[in-house]
Design brief:
three-stranded antiparallel beta sheet; 3 strands; binds iron/sulfur cluster; mainly alpha
Length: 348
């Protein structure tokens, strides 16, 4: 017999088919949202949900209104799909995955837990899993200890510790959400949702600016400095070098035209073609590759002591900027103190 999921549980697991059926049974359709007051209220609440994700919140606070909680989950996914910003999608995926992990981990209703895990495509509490399933579940994990060659395999089964089951569950939930986005949204719906999408884009830009502030070239990580120096010296950058430079400069809020200027001295520089390529990357809002990927492509160069503390060039930039700002404040305080000393000595 099919399990009946309580409405409150649907807000914890809004991706279940039961949630869609719950909305459908009440005659709620996405297309109707912009046309009604309550629908527009849900759209505004969906923006709040997305802003929580942009701000890196661990979890989105639920209301007492089951329909609203399920609707904001659905609408948030629709809206980020319309905005088409990979970074934004990743943030929403991260938040939703953490939220679901939180509930499923402490779920006391075993039948419900199994039902949710079945939808996610994972079996909970399994000490051994088949090699095929293991490869599927670990495909997004990069640590060497997860490579099949480093595991105990017996009779086609891989042994998994309790801690590892937890990690697999987290990864599976994240993969589940990640693989579904962006959704394919009809152009007419995209058009109707444009005012809400514009609000999200504006918030994202505002937060990016607040995050990185005014561009400070002296805080660029060594790898990016080397790539820019190479471009300025007329070296033809590799595809990965161009991609890393463009995404980095875009992520710290440089405009496409300014980015094109960085490549202007490349031997094969073609302004239109370069602008087109830069636009392709900036429109999709790709994030700068992590240090590990930069290393793989041979463009992690001139590492310094700060590189030992970070795993991403953007984190390097953020930390270095803070260090430079603190140094600048200290220098200013020293200058002020010394000029005050000079004045008081002259007055003696
Ligand atoms: S460690 Fe990271 S930030 Fe440092 S040079 Fe390498 S890629 Fe750049």
């Amino acid at each position: 017999m099919r399990l009946t999921v309580e409405p409150r549980d649907l807000t914890h697991y809004p991706f279940l088919k039961d949630s869609q059926e719950f909305l459908a049974a009440r005659g709620i359709k996405i297309r109707d949202f912009t046309a009604s007051t309550i629908g527009r209220k849900y759209l505004d609440a969906a923006i709040d949900r997305i802003v929580c994700a942009i701000d890196g919140k661990e979890i989105y606070p639920e209301s007492q209104d089951v329909v609203a909680d399920i609707a904001t989950y659905v609408l948030a996914r629709v809206l980020v799909s319309c905005v088409k910003d990979r970074n934004l999608i990743e943030r929403l995926v991260r938040m939703e995955a953490r939220r679901v992990y939180f509930y499923i981990h402490d779920e006391e209703n075993e039948k419900l837990k199994n039902h949710v895990c079945e939808t996610l495509g994972i079996t909970f509490d399994l000490e051994k899993i088949s090699v095929i399933k293991y490869v599927e579940l670990t495909s997004t994990i990069r640590e060497p200890k997860w490579r099949l060659i480093n595991r105990d395999v017996d009779d086609g089964l891989v042994t998994i510790s309790d801690d590892e089951q937890d990690i697999l569950l987290r990864e599976r939930i994240k993969f589940f959400f990640d693989s579904q986005l962006p959704l394919t949204i009809p152009l007419s719906v995209e058009h109707e949702l444009m005012p809400w999408c514009d609000k999200i884009t504006a918030t994202l830009q505002e937060r990016t600016f607040a995050d990185f502030g005014v561009i400070d070239e002296s805080a660029y990580p060594p790898c990016i400095q080397a790539l820019i120096a190479g471009a300025a010296a007329g070296v033809n950058l590799s595809h990965s070098g161009r991609f890393a430079t463009t995404t980095f400069l875009n992520n710290i809020s440089m405009t496409p035209t300014q980015i094109v200027g960085v490549f202007a001295r490349s031997p094969d520089f073609n302004p239109d073609m370069t602008l087109y390529q830069v636009d392709q990357i900036t429109t999709h809002e790709y994030t700068t590759p992590a240090c590990q990927t930069m290393l793989t492509h041979g463009i992690c160069v001139n590492r310094d002591h700060l590189c030992d503390k970070i795993t991403h060039p953007l984190n390097y930039y953020r930390s270095k900027k803070k260090l430079l700002e603190r140094k600048h404040l200290r220098d200013e305080a020293k200058t002020l103190a010394s000029s005050e000393k000079n004045i008081s000595e002259k007055l003696k």
